[in-house]
Amino acid sequence: MANFYTDNEDLKFQFKHPLINKIVDLKEQGYRDFGKYDYAPANLEDAIDSYDKVMEIIGEICGDIIAVNAESVDHDGPVCKDGRVTYAAGTQKNQEALIKAGVYGIALPREFGGLNFSMVPYVMAAELVSRADAGFGNIWGLQDCAETIYEYASREIQEEFLPRINKGETCSMDLTEPDAGSDLQSVMLKATYNEEKGLWYLNGVKRFITNGDAQIKLVLARSEEGTKDGRGLSYFVYDKAWGGVNVRRIENKLGIKGSPTCELVFNNAPAKLVGDRKLGLIKYVMSLMNGARLGVGAQSVGISEAAYREAAKYAQERVQFGKKIAEFPAVAEMLGLMKAKLQASRAVLYETTRFVDIYKSYEAILKERKLTPEERAEYKKYSKYADMFTPVLKMMASEYCNQNAYDAIQVHGGSGYMKEYPVERLYRDARITTIYEGTSQLQTVAAIRYVTNGSYLGRIKEYEEMEIAPKFEPLKAKLIAMREQYEQACEYMNGKDNAFVDFNARKLVEMAAHIIMSWLLILEASVNSSMEKSAKIYTNRSQAWNMDRFTFITNSVAEDLEEYN
């Protein structure tokens, strides 16, 4: 009997982080729901106990049901018939178990049937589910749509849809089209308003829509006739019961096969406007995409965890030349680096989540009252941190996820290439994480401004001021030297044109990320001994990785760009 929460001490540590008190206090607002709802906490200890118990429930479902079903779901997949999608039998069992446990909508307010949990346990649940089955992780994770409805939709729409999502009704966000992938400004699905019925009607095609036959959809469509850019796009909510949307086909994918990726045809599909016209892409989708990138970060960590565990297990069982292959230095080194990348990814995942938690709590407070000057300063600070860290998380966690899945097969040798072992599936599932919800290249575009304006440097210096265990002082010295090297690399960019900065952008972002993630590991290792080995391995490797990038950057000249044009 497996429990994916209780078998991982690194997860429970997240509920002991110094910021968790502030996060829970902001979320609970004086524990005002206590007595009003029989499951509302009375105090901090009560709230953390609820987080712990719900994570244990989800961890058990992940270990005993979702992980067990993962191989059959990967083999069978969903099917499309007469414009409708039917999940694989294992997917249906997963969904039924989670609905029965009442764990959907855990981050939403209690007035809509949610548990009002902070983002930390919500993201943790996504990690647990993705470790069990990354494909099902997409179906679970699309309840993020509820956050957008809660934040931006009218009260009428909130009351109509949020209780249903909390009861497990499925969601999708319908953004991309055949000619509008990453370039969402090119979306052309047409939205026309019918004044007599008070509804909008959608016509056109959407492609690459995850969980495309969902019961509740958020749809990006062009509401302003004659426009061609993002200012003509609005956001709509659609109910499958209203009709007008059919699935043309399910894509035949490399991985995450349990999650149906669909091409959809909208034919006078009724819909309701979310928020204000013209803000669909500019405001609402950007907010949803940041949440989705946090979700892919959690999914990536879940896959990394599964890949590392499978590799470590096999290395202990496989005997060659009279000893376990885990005892060979080459394999031991590989496993150590896999774990370091995993724990570094997890560290930046929850650091980012804490920043999101705090600024979103302040946004919820803003619905009721004005913030004090001190609160507004904190809101701006943590909102900026969330914006800074989200692209770093999405890029680094997904890249490491792919690397760990690759190395897991290598540890297995020829056996890893066979379908008898789950690492083959993990390898296929991992590949999409650097692509969807913004490629690693687009994350670089989002992150580079925080290199050039000094924001990453400022946060790194804040980490340098934090207290660490004395035994990590030698690592601190290395990180200070790496920060100085990073400053030199940034200074080298001064006066260079935009094309030259773009040419070196990823290397600069990665330098900052390596330093930040090393600091997070050291800070956690100072109070959690299970992180100590990874803190040392990751910091030492980061030193070498950054030297490589520094050498490339400071030896780059404008003419180098011509080689790639």
Write the layout of secondary structure elements.
Elements: H1 9-13, H2 20-28, H3 44-76, E1 79-81, E2 84-86, H4 89-101, H5 119-132, H6 134-141, H7 144-152, H8 155-166, E3 171-174, E4 190-194, E5 199-210, E6 216-222, E7 233-239, E8 245-250, E9 261-274, H9 280-317, E10 319-320, E11 323-324, H10 329-366, H11 373-412, H12 423-430, H13 440-452, H14 455-464, H15 473-492, H16 498-525, H17 532-554
Parallel strand pairs: 3-6
Antiparallel strand pairs: 1-2, 4-5, 5-9, 6-7, 7-9, 8-9, 10-11
Structural class: alpha+beta
Strand content: 5-15%
Total beta strand runs: 11
| Envelope shape | globular
Helix content: 55-70%
Average pLDDT rating: 96
- Show unreliable segments: none
Task: Output the number of helix runs.
Answer: 17
Helix/strand order: HHHEEHHHHHEEEEEEEHEEHHHHHHHH
Cα gyration radius (Å) = 24 Å
- First and last CA, distance: 56 Å
Largest sheet: 7 strands, mixed
Q: What does this protein structure show overall?
A:
The chain has 17 helices and 11 strands. It has 565 residues and is an alpha+beta fold. The strands form 3 sheets. Strands 3, 4, 5, 6, 7, 8 and 9 form a 7-stranded mixed β-sheet that branches. Strand 10 and strand 11 form a beta hairpin. Helix 3 runs parallel beside helix 5 and helix 5 packs across helix 9. It is globular, with a radius of gyration of 24 Å. The N and C termini lie far apart (56 Å). The mean pLDDT is 96.
